[in-house]
Amino acid sequence: MGLTCAGTALCSCSAAAFNQIFEISRDSQMKRTQKRPLVQGDISPMHASAVATTWGVAGTSLLAIGTDPYTTVLGAGNIALYAGLYTYMKPRTVLNTWVGAVVGAVPPVIGWSAATGGEILDVECLLLGATLYLWQMPHFFALSYMHRVDYARGGFKMVPVLEEDGERTANLVVRYAWYLSTIPFISSAAGVTSTMFGLEGLLLNAYALNVAHDFKRNRTNAKARKVFLTSLGYLPCFLMLFLIHSKTWDEKESEDNVIRKEIDSYLQWIRNKGRQLCIHESYQNNSADCPVLITKQQTRKAVTAADEVSTVASSPN
C-alpha cells in the first residue's frame, strides 16, 4: 500500500509540474497563479523539467514494483492525460473540463487496481471512479465561476468565461449534483453497500442539491463559493459513508497487518456509535414497533394475501 500511495503521489506531482511548465506565460497573467515558482523565476523551466521527469519516472517505477501492469499504465497515462491533452485543450475548448475530470477520477481507480491486481472493471471500482468524476463538475464549475475574470486574463476556455450571465454554469452545477445523488442508490442496488448508504446519502445530497439550486437562483460569487466549500466537505463525508456501509469490505478476509486491523477496529467503533444514534436500530433493538420492520411485515402480509387470492381465482370451480 505504501508503494501505491507514494507512486500515485509522485505521478500527480509530475503531472502538475509539467502543467505549470507549459503554462508559465498564462499563469503570469492570472492573479491566483502569479506567485508560482516558475512565474516568479525561483526555478528555471529546465530545472523544473528535470524534477518533473524524475517524479514521473520514480512514480511509475514504484507502481511497477509494488503493483501490476494495469496500475502502472494508469499512473503513467494520467501524467500524459493531464500534462498533455488536458493542458493542450484548456486554451482551446471548454471540453477541457470534462477531460480534466477523467484525470481526477483515475487515482481511486489506481488504488482499487493495486489492491485487486488490476480488476478495474469491478462494480466498486467503477462506482468510485464515477463518484470522483461527477463530484469534480460542481466543484470546478463553482471554482471557475469565482475566478472567471482571472481565467479570461489567462486565455483559458472555461464555461463561465464564455458566457455573461452564468446560466449554463449554474445548470451544469445542478445537473451533475443530481447525477452524483444517484450513486448511493446505485451502489445499494448493486449490493456494494447496505441500504443505509442510500438513506444517509439522501441527507448528504439533499443539502448539496439545495446549495446547487441556490446558486442557480442567485448566480453570485458568494453562492458559487458556497458550492465550492460544500464540495470540499461533501467528498470525505461521502467516501466515509461508502466505506462504513461497504459490504465488500466486510466480505474480504481480514489481512494479517496492523493497518487493516486498525481500520477494521475503527469502522466497528463508528458503526456501533451510528447504531446508537439510528432511530431504526433503536426501535429494532428495544421494541417490536420499528416502523421499518412494520412496513416489511405489512408488505409480506400483502404479498401473501395477493398470492392466496390469485390461487383461489385460478383454481377450478
Which characteristics define this entry?
single chain, 317 residues, mainly alpha, 16 helices, 79% helix
Give a short synopsis of this structure.
The protein is mainly α and 317 residues long.
How would you describe this protein?
The protein has 317 residues and is mainly α. It is built from 16 helices and no strands. The chain has helices at 2-22, 24-27, 37-40, 45-66, 69-89, 96-116, 123-146, 148-154, 167-181, 183-189, 195-217, 221-244, 247-251, 258-277, 279-286, 291-314. Helix 4 (45-66) runs antiparallel to helix 5, helix 5 runs antiparallel to helix 6 and helix 11 (195-217) runs antiparallel to helix 12. The longest helix has 24 residues, at 123-146. Mean pLDDT is 85; it is low at 287-303 and 309-315.
Topology, element by element:
Layout: H1 2-22, H2 24-27, H3 37-40, H4 45-66, H5 69-89, H6 96-116, H7 123-146, H8 148-154, H9 167-181, H10 183-189, H11 195-217, H12 221-244, H13 247-251, H14 258-277, H15 279-286, H16 291-314
Largest sheet: none
Proportion of β residues? Answer: under 5%
Number-wise, the strands total 0
Overall 3D shape = globular
Number of helices: 16
Low confidence ranges: 287-303, 309-315
Distance between the termini: 70 Å
Radius of gyration, in angstroms, nearest whole number: 24 Å
Average pLDDT figure: 85
Percent range of helical residues: over 70%
Overall SS class = mainly alpha
The secondary-structure element order is HHHHHHHHHHHHHHHH
